[in-house]
Amino acid sequence: MAELTYDTLMDDGNYLGSERARMENQVILNELERKKKARNIAVPTDDNRVRARLREIGEPITLFGERPADRRDRLIYVLSQIKHARGDDGMQVDESSDESEDEEEESEFYTPGSLELLEARRKIAEYSLPRAQKRVAQQLIDSKMELGRIVDIRKKVFGEVKKFAILGSQIGDERPISQVRFSPNNEILVTGSCTLTSSDRVGGVAWHPQATLNQSPDSVNLRITSVRDYVASASYDTSWRLWDVATSQELLLQEGHSREVYSIEFQNDGALVASGGLDAIGRVWDLRTGRTAMVLDGHVQGIYSVAFSPNGYQIATGAGDDTIRIWDMRSLKSLYTIPGHTSNISDVRFFQANDLFFKKPQTPEPTSPDVNGDTGANESAVSSRSDTPKLDKPEAGSPTFTPEEEWSYRSGLFFASGGYDGYVKLWSADDWQLLRTLTTDSGKVMSVDISSNGHMIAAGTYNRNYQLYSDLE
Q1: Is residue 378's pLDDT more than 90?
Q2: Where is the composition biased (Polar residues) (predicted)?
């Protein structure tokens, strides 16, 4: 398979020329046209009149958990569907609506972007396309893996996860530790706290992907996209911004939340970024186009943490409603809701394996015979026993997978969450079940992280401590 690049994507006419693509595009255009016409439909603003109108057209007057604003939107949607089915150019306006209100015609508007932003979008697209192609190709290989191998890998990985235990605790600062992140080589732990000023605090810290590996110590070691030239920052002014690390220039000021933006996270491919706000709404943005790819609407309290799964299409969000929600970008909906903690969920982190730490088990070397052709008296005595298994046959219960398959499938197979109930919890990322609960010496866990070799977990707590957990006995 040829490598997918920005240039080959632009020159590829097969997709746009297919009948299926034309049909899909036509469906999208029809839906956009329907929404455009729906904005011009006048409906009552009074909830009682909305209920009466729904009853007239044979629709339920209310649905479970439906708010008045949602009910009015549903009425608009139903009326637009009726209009589209009849093929009417105009819709009869409800006489009982508030005609005295002058509604301005809604129209889309665009803010001109800079040439630097255009170049940044192109570089992000050029870098993310081959990474996405490689990820999808690996997922295709994993999808063909036998069920028995998958079961064996899950048993082995989850068995190791259940061995995590406290390794040590250390005072890390004079104020509560709000963030902990392992370095890419897993030898350094960076912490962030509230010691900058009396009113500000460090809300997010992370490493450059190549820091402590081949990155110069004098270079910027912030969390940036996979293109490695840009950094994003979330702000309490209801926006997030994209910056050029080399020039310190602001490339993009992105709005889209009604309250403070609390967390922001990049997808591994580098093309998408997810933001979580205190308005209980999360959004997934496509950096290549600037458009919203998905709205994460389901929490009832502010979102404190957002994390992309290594598979690229699943997202976990932790919020103040004590739940973790799993979202699927393929179906554009929430897959599962985990009642994770008994208080605010402050952080969620997937295990993301780094191939640099994959160690293939060494096969034992055969014992060389002595001058008489024997391998030793002791070995001969052991080999002569009737209960000794033969080496040319696989042992019963031996793993049915290779170390390479295990390491590839292990990435993203579990994740960790920290909450204000004082616990760190480890969850499986396929059936979303609890694997292990780790206690801390504090009432609030502010942050959590998993090392890229899968053997260490760090937690930052409100009582100024950071704690380490290990699965190595």
Answers
A1: no
A2: 375-386
